[in-house]
Design goal:
The chain is of the alpha+beta class. The protein has helices spanning about 25-30, 45-50, 65-70, 75-85, 95-100, 135-140, 165-170, 225-235, 255-260, 290-305, 335-345, 350-355, 365-375; strands at about 10-15, 40-45, 60, 90-95, 125-130, 145-150, 170-180, 195-205, 205-210, 305-310, 325, 330-335, 385-390, 400-405, 420-425, 430-435, 440-450, 455, 455-460, 475-485, 490-495, 495-500, 505, 510, 515-520. The chain has two domains: about 10-280, Rossmann fold (3-Layer(aba) Sandwich); about 285-520, no CATH class. Strands 13, 14, 15, 16, 17, 19, 20, 21, 24 and 25 form a ten-stranded antiparallel beta sheet that branches.
Length: about 525
């Protein structure tokens, strides 16, 4: 059993009536393997209408046809499901069952998200890559990252509104994103890639898990379903009324007004691209303060909205390093310091000014200038709205890392490069050791958001709308900070391949100028 400890035996109802397809057999086979902790009962539409759901911990709506399942539940079954979840039940919708949970006029509206390009639903069947977020990794009992999964005409959940509607973002947590797509005849390309593949929401007192692809038909990934069933039942009564806090996932409880009207279509703002995976669903978790959070959100906005992304040394003021368009997208043809200068100048002009002043002969400060500025800060008292972060273990989301390049013999970039500057997404979780060229090294791995031509260590995530197949500009990935025995930074290893120079990066570089900066108010 993938769940630790001795889980209680769950009572799980699985729907089977008109509209349920052959994937039901795969689901039933998976659940039978876990019958010691999951007791399964099959219900049809009449059973649901008669109120049988009150006897179960979880209700699963399998694959097939969402419209036909809705028809099988007509005459009160849909209202019974909504009432069951509102009162504290758990709903799992797979493919058609995910359609059924969506915020569409003829469906349940348990999830605060609609279906995109619904008229071109016949995309076909195949295996597609999905990427699990940190929250998804916990709920499903897997590692964050990319996995292949069976897809068969599942819904393309319309996540475009999440960036521009904070309330919707609070009501929904993305657990996995599609990283590939199938395109229907006459359908639009790019609709599916980057869309949410699995989501978690709270409806009234209950929890709703929507899964567009078929995990039950994907060995060995099918084990995520029983793991998720136990997670849902363990967390459905979480004490926080604002979030599914145990997953740190940001799935907020929707209001009772919304829960009372499951079929009402909620208004949607102007569309925006889908949020990024992994850490993006923990937007306020881990930032040191509101200013750091604002900086992260600006950088993440570029990542999510950039449609033209290219690493380029552009001699232009900070505000011109990223160009915005009226349709909500942007262009980022910029290098590391240009990107970070744009972010800081956009959210905190007074914090950018003293750094720019150190290199007024340039359109914007170079990476080495950021390193010098951070190195001159104090760790206890703010100066010009900044503090120096003393140690890698103290880094938080929205902090900055900058280094000046090492000596030429140790450095993989050309002579014109001054170093690198980046933003922290997640701090290191521990210290690793490795042997390189026969010598041991110690390093901390940090998940960062930056503009670079160097392919970072996995998981590297490319901007969802730029249609790239490799790192070339703004993206997310892991870098390694080399540490001495006292955990002080002595070097860096940015990644695996230098795109500009067209050669691999096979070893770390060393520098005595690696510093960390944090934006604060002068009163902090």
């Amino acid at each position: 059993m993938p769940v630790q400890g001795q889980p209680r035996r769950l009572e799980v109802a699985v729907f089977k009536d008109s509209g349920v397809g052959p994937s039901f057999n795969d689901l039933a086979a998976v659940l039978r393997r876990y019958e010691e902790t999951i007791h399964t009962t099959i219900l049809n539409g009449e059973d649901v209408r008669e109120g049988s759901l009150k006897n179960f911990d979880v209700f699963i709506a399998p694959g097939g046809s969402g419209k036909k399942q809705a028809a099988s539940l007509a005459g009160g079954g849909m209202a019974e499901i909504a009432r069951y979840v509102k009162n504290g039940g758990c709903y799992v919708g797979i493919c058609a069952g995910c359609y059924l949970a969506a915020n569409e006029p003829d469906f349940l509206g348990l999830l605060p998200i609609g279906i995109r390009d619904r008229q071109h639903w016949f995309r076909g069947e195949g295996t597609l890559p999905i990427e699990f977020t940190q929250a998804g990794a916990e709920i499903f009992g897997v590692s964050p990252g990319v996995a292949d999964i069976v897809y068969h005409n599942g819904p393309v959940l319309d996540g475009r509104t999440l960036l521009e509607n904070p309330q919707l973002a609070k009501e929904l947590t993305v657990l996995a994103f599609y990283r590939g797509e199938l395109v229907a005849k006459n359908g639009e390309r790019g609709v599916m890639k980057g869309a949410p593949a699995m989501v978690l929401g709270r409806y009234g007192k209950g929890l709703v898990l929507g899964m567009s692809p078929h995990a039950e038909s994907t060995p060995p990934l099918n084990k995520i379903i029983p793991h998720a069933l136990h997670w849902l039942c363990d967390h459905v009564s979480a004490p926080s009324s604002n979030s599914v806090s145990s997953a740190n996932a940001g799935a907020h409880q929707i209001t009772e007004r919304q829960a009372d009207r499951p079929h009402e279509k909620r208004s949607a703002p102007r569309p925006a691209p889908v949020p990024s995976p992994a850490a993006d669903n923990q937007a306020s978790a881990g930032a040191s303060n509101q200013l750091a959070q604002a900086a992260y959100e600006k950088a993440n906005w570029v990542f999510n909205n950039v449609r033209t992304d290219h690493y380029q040394h552009k001699s232009a003021p900070a505000r011109e390093q990223v160009l915005s368009f009226q349709d909500g997208t942007c262009e980022a043809n910029t290098d590391c310091s240009g990107f970070i200068s744009y972010v800081i100048e956009s959210v905190a002009h007074k914090h950018y000014t003293p750094i720019k002043r150190m290199q007024n002969n340039w359109a914007h400060p170079q990476a080495k200038t950021y390193a010098r500025f951070f190195g001159g800060l104090g760790t206890a008292e703010a100066s010009d709205g900044w503090l120096r972060v003393a140690s890698p273990k103290e880094l938080k989301r929205g902090d900055f890392i900058a280094w000046k390049k090492g000596s030429e013999k140790d450095f993989h970039h050309g002579s014109g490069n001054s170093g690198h500057v980046m933003m922290v997404i997640d701090p290191p979780t521990g210290i690793s050791e490795e042997t390189v060229d026969g010598a041991p090294i110690r390093f901390a791995t940090v998940f960062v958001l930056d503009s670079s031509s160097v392919y970072h260590f996995k998981p590297e995530q490319l901007p969802p709308n730029a249609r790239q197949d490799h790192r070339d500009g703004v993206a997310k990935g892991c870098i390694r900070l080399l540490l001495d025995k006292n955990d002080n930074p002595i070097g860096y290893w940015e990644g695996t391949y230098w795109g500009e120079g067209q050669k691999p990066v096979s070893k770390p570089s060393y520098s005595d100028e690696i510093y960390f900066g944090r934006m604060v108010s002068n009163r902090q």
